[in-house]
Amino acid sequence: MISIVGCRKTHRGDGRQPPVPVLDGVDLEVRPHEFVAVLGPSGCGKTTLLRILAGLEGWDSGEVRVHGRPVSGPGTDRALVFQDFALLPWATVTDNIAFGLELRGVARAERTAVANRLIDRVGLNGFARHYPHQLSGGMQQRVGLARALAVEPEILLLDEPFGSLDSLTRRGLQEDVLRLHHETRKTVLLVTHSVDEAARLGDRVVLLGPRPARVIETIETGLPRPRPDDIGSDRRFVALKEHLWNRLKALTSR
Amino acid sequence: MESSQGADQPLGAAAPADWRTSLTALAAGAVVWELTARLSVALPPFSVVVGTLIELLRGDVLLPALATSLASLAVGFSCAAAAGLTLGLVLGRSRTAEHLSDVYLDAVMSAPTLIYVPFLFALFGVSRASQVAVVFAYAFFIIVTTTSAAVKQMDRRLIDMARAFGATDRQILWRVALPAARPMVLIGLSLGVTRAVKGMVVGEMVIALSGVGALLRASAARFDLAQTLALLLVVVIVSAACNLLVGRAGRALIDR
Which of A101, A172, B204, B231 could be a cystine partner for A111, CB 3.0 to 4.6 Å? Predict the structure, then answer.
């Protein structure tokens, strides 16, 4: 589904700043319907990796393929959920969710129907005509999630989507994402700096080292799907988190 | 639960209560004016000015002059808005274009616009074109700078978002860039039209060919303060009306 081989990237400086190497030969394979969590310390380049996959940025060398074809720009098979939500402040919840469809020229009635279904699905009933500033952070990200689902992508790219939310809201949304993944069987690539989030959501956790990023370790979590509510007390889950913590600590203290 | 939208009016939509407040302020101003004028000799009282204004409206001088002035204003401001918005968009999007023009825009903006009037006069002669050019000169630059600032300070993340969802350059311009820039562009147009009215009067006063400005100059020269103030009232009303009109038109134009 997604295949990245030896991907390297250096952010060119703008004259005043020196060039910064961000990705140092990243290898990553994601199978269809798989939920992969890319875990790495802040600023390690994991967002850059996701932006490359989304077609928003290029890379210097190596291969980045989706469905076997090199990524050459944004595509209808991928949809991105943004860390800072990136909602249009002047558009209602409905119009925000339908934005991707609007760009594709889908008729108003049809995109409103799609938006309404998704509003129901992400639990935003009654907020169809609200504006983003009238919603809490968690609700805004639900809109972001619905907007990504509206274009019916095969691959969901989540860029630290819950990083700016409080822990309670975060847990609620994580459960929503787990449920959506279970129902839709979409391929999901999640980028996060939270050990708990990576272990809780991923089928596989890919650990990246500090910038310039390389894959340090890939771990099959082996945790059951659907995840039980008491996964937090599962021995394997606790042990996985412990292991990831220790690796991360060792990586960042150097 | 569907909330009522009343408490969350989008920016720029004046609630009815605001109008009542404004009218109260205007009435209070009229009373203060009237009282001050009755106590001193220099200022004609409000009632006298209004009387003069009514007389002027009944006469056959003001309305033709006003029509002439408004025609120059309409043509001059429309050109300034079209050219200003276009150039502003270009400058806002291109760093090179911005750096090339920065110095010149600053220089032009820092000089009093009145200085350019003789040049325009020399260029276009005693004609309607000079009047239009003066209106243009007054309104153009503020529209350019506000529009380019509006585009520059735009949230890049929204553009990234749109691109990720497959937006073309054209769609980004119309669906993201312009709506995002809209509040500030409307402010620019509003400042622009106010300045255009100023330009209209100044142009006519300096060139003294026709229009409300020529009447103003004549009455000021005669020390006819009541008529001067009455004409000033006309200018203020024209300016307020234009502001209202431009706001409406601007909102309709940049569809969201």
Answer: A101
